[in-house]
Every structure is written in C-alpha cells, then in structure tokens.
Amino acid sequence: DIARWRVRTQRLVTPHAASAGDVVAGLLAVQAENASQASWAVGCRTEKPHQADLAGLLESGQVLRTHVLRPTWHFVSADDIVWLLEVTASRNQPIMLKQLQAGGLDDAAIGRATDDVLDVLSRRHLTRAGLAEALKDRGHELTGFLLMILLARIEFSTLICSGRLEDGEHTYALMSERVPSPRRLERDEALAELALRYFTGHGPATERDLAYWATLTLTNARAGLALVRDRLEFCEHGGRTYWHAPGESPPKGPQQPTGHLLQILDETYRGYQDSRWVLDAASHVPRARESAIGMALVDGQIVAGMRRTLSARAVTFELTPFRELKAKDVKAIEQAAQRYADFLGLQPVITR
Predict the structure, then answer these.
(1) pLDDT (tens digit per residue) in 125-157
(2) Angle between helices 93-102 and 144-156 (to 10 degrees)
(3) Does 180 sit behind a cis peptide bond, omega within 30 degrees of 0 on the bond before it?
(4) How many whole angstroms separate alpha carbon 302 and alpha carbon 279?
(5) Cα–Cα distance for residue pair 3/54, rounded to 1 Å
(6) pTM to 2 decimals?
C-alpha cells in the first residue's frame, strides 16, 4: 500500500503532472545523473510525455541540471536552486575539499582554479571538455575526476550551474547569469520548506528517508519536520512513522499505468533509503550490490532488473526477472515499453 501510495504521489500514475516543470517543482529535485534516462524520469510523470518539454526548460534556464542535495546531478527549478544548495552544502563541501586535496590541490590552487573557471564562464558557456582546455591554457592540469569534483564544489558554492546545451552536451554557466534574482531562505525556513516539499512530493516517507535524500543530519531533518508537522499527516507501519500530504490515503488496488520501466536512479527508488524496500514487499530482490541500471515495476513492486540499449531504430529493454512474470505482468511491462519507446521515437524490443 505504501509503495502504491508513493507512485501516485510521484505522479507515475494518474493523475499525471501537466508539464515537466510541474514534475520538477513537485519533487523539488529529480535525480539526473544519466541525462538521457532522467529525461524519461520526468517525461513519464506528465500527461503528454515529450522530450521538448524538459529540453525547453533546460535551454531557458527555468530548470537547471546541477549538483545538489548529494554530490550527484539533479534537475531543479531555478526558483529553488540557490536556497536548496545553501541548505545542503555544509555536509557536501568538506567531502569534495578532501577529494581535491587528496588529488594534490591545496587551498591556493583550488582558489586559483575556481577564479579561472568563473572568469572563463563569464565569456561563454562551456562543456567540461571545453573548460578543461581553457583551464589548461591558464596553467591548470585538471581533467577527469579532479575537474568533475572541482566543478561540483563550485556548484555547491552557488557560483555555477548548467548552461545551454551544446550539440546535445551539458555545459556550465555562471549562476548569476542563469538565476539573476535567486530566492534565498533563512536556514530554519529552508529546513522547513525542504521537509514540507519532500514529504508532499515523496510521501509517505520517514524522517530518515529525508535525511538521506538531502544529506542532512537526522537532527536537522527532525528540526525541519518539527516546523511543518502541523501541515502534514502521518501513519505508522512496521515500527516506522511515515509522513505525507494531508488528506491522502492509500489507493485501493492497482493504478494506471500499472507497469513502469525506470532507471535505478529514479526518485521512486533513490528518493529513499530507510524505507526503500517497500518496493519489494515479498523480498524477491537480492539485497546486494545493484547489478542492473534499471528496474521494471508492476503495481509499485520491482519484478525485474532492466538494462536499456538504444540503436538507430529501436530501444531494447533487457529484463532479468526476480520472480516468475505472470501474463498480466508481461502485459503491463509491454505497455510501459511502448510508452518509453514512443517518447524516444523508437520501436520497443523486450528480451529476457
């Protein structure tokens, strides 16, 4: 029931969101490490999935793709990006600083490289490769992992974010250019809004789920929850307290669409840690290192691992079932594959 409730809260079933912007704002942040599959993660939650919906928002800067919450990519509305970075940076910045120092960069070198990144981006948006070349011309030998961590650290400092795509590739731009009038909140206000938006967009969920999702201490997660608990409701299950938007109750049985093919980074999985496994109530999925990059859901439950492969004409979904798939499961997955393929403009192929 909790898993079914979540897929409804997250707009994976009807009623879907009206647009990509509504999806991003409703979830507050959407995991976007794999840009191609993350586009579907947003699109499949809308009434009329179309790649141009999110692409237009990213081009205009209404939605940004940047490192926030955890040191990984997310889609975030421009209205939320700065205050969200400011409230989640304190536990992420020290980790990235240690990684840079382990790579041989002292504080002075980090400062010089940061200044040069900002100067270069004040002239034009650049891909990571373009930035590496520009920094090399200025005496910085930064490539690969070190450059990625440096840029993520500058993102967490609210100085840079995503720019316009260049030949389909992610670029970096100055935050001040993309978000000239940022919304800022005092820390208590930010913790309160973070808790309210998380539980209304991801609920039912626990305070430990929130702490994981936003890289907060449990103390800070509880502080934010305490400020908005009168605007939420809760239920108890299995020794956990689950918070959710007021006036909601578990759905009665399966919802439509019943099946989904999603990346393992999708918010319905990665948006939780403490109570993640409501997605596998029967314990069919091995509790080991994730071996697939995707998952097949039927009625809110993981029934198979999924690997997606693209070709010129088709998208192939290779399934690794965790239990015997019944005829109704296969039908739900076939329908999910068709929706995904239509979004990509390809033909669906399912193998297992």
Answers:
(1) 999 999 999 999 999 988 789 999 999 999 999
(2) 150
(3) no
(4) 6
(5) 26
(6) 0.95
